[in-house]
Request: fold
Amino acid sequence: MGEFLTKLWQWSPEVLPVLWFATGMTVVVTVGALIVALILGLLIALMRISRVRWIRWIALIYTDVLRGTPALVQLFIIYFGLSDLGIEFDPVTAAIVGLGINGAAYVGEIYRAGIEAIHKGQMEASLSLGMTPIKAMRFIILPQAVRIMLPPLCNYAILLVKDTAIISTIAAPEIMFEARRLVQATFMHSVSGQIYLMCAFFYLALTLPLSHIAKRLEQAKERWQ
Amino acid sequence: MIEFIAGYGDYIWDWLPEMAIASLQTLQLMVVSFCLACVLGMIVALLRISRFGVLRAIAKIYIGFFRGVPVLVILYWIYFALPEMGYEVLVISSYTAAILGLGIHGAAFLAEIFRSGIESLHRGQMEAALSLGMTPAKAMSYIILPQAIRVVVPPIANYTVGLLKETALCSIIAAPELMLRAKDLASSSFLPMHAFVLAAIFYYIMSFPLMRLAEHLEVRMGAGR
Reply:
């Protein structure tokens, strides 16, 4: 144990800067994928509550298939599969697109639950009070929906941070990729345990604040209800 | 589209049996690591509600750590780091490493589920059972656990869907399962799109009944409360 920590201390000046920059890439991919998921998810959610049946079906199948298959397979189809068909992405773009498409299935469900939780009568009531539909959305519907959606969205962001680890398989230079490369390139085999432990702490530095926020949002929601 | 399907022509009869066998390996990996996660998770959950502050703290750290870290970090730690750090005893097969990694990671999630199940019951039930002369172990097994099961089964069913998808990550440490087989077939045939799409279909076939079961249990177990 003592030896383990000594080595950790000795090697940290070389390892930490590499992991620090790699964490930047993890954050970039997480934020990028989150934005794709939030936008695409809205589209899926609106399709799910559409009046046209086949549009509902498309959204339902999208959600079910994307949730029923591993993100790794989806990522490989986008990165290796599409390049075989002549559509090539660089790893980071493929990662953002892949995780975003995957996330849209989850985010779409969160939106739908949020929209459906608000009673239809509220919209009708605000319209009958003379509000425009936009005003009703802005002052009545959205403030309530956001309170309901924020805690699960925050939980989804935590999942997303952890999912970014898989993009190391398509050589996107994030935490796990850089750590593995460090171990292999510099023959730091004897300290690989320390390096992967540091990786764990870099991930925790991202996920623990998020889960704290999620808990606070959940409490705020319960107080409000 | 037709061209794409025709591309399977030469390979499909070789691929189907191989992928079917690999799917069985995936299911086996899932079942064994699920059992490990259940046992470990129960221990952690009992520690988490223990009377001793130290044990509670240990369980809390375990849950916080393993929930905030990607499975891949744990798999790397078990499979690459432990042997590379010079613990020759700990050289294990990738399959064993995969089971241990998924089990240790899953235990943190299941522990929280178990705890919420136990805590959802009123304290008075335990006190009443004890005052009737039951031993704490008897009260647990006849009074508390049967009721707690209703609370914990739906989230556990959801967890198994996630676990199935997580097994795909084990291909990164070369554990024999569906994703690894798909990678092999993709590189030997130079048809990555075909191989990964087929893998996705196999994953969906496995997760489809699990997802429907999870939905069914959520409705059924939620109804009686």
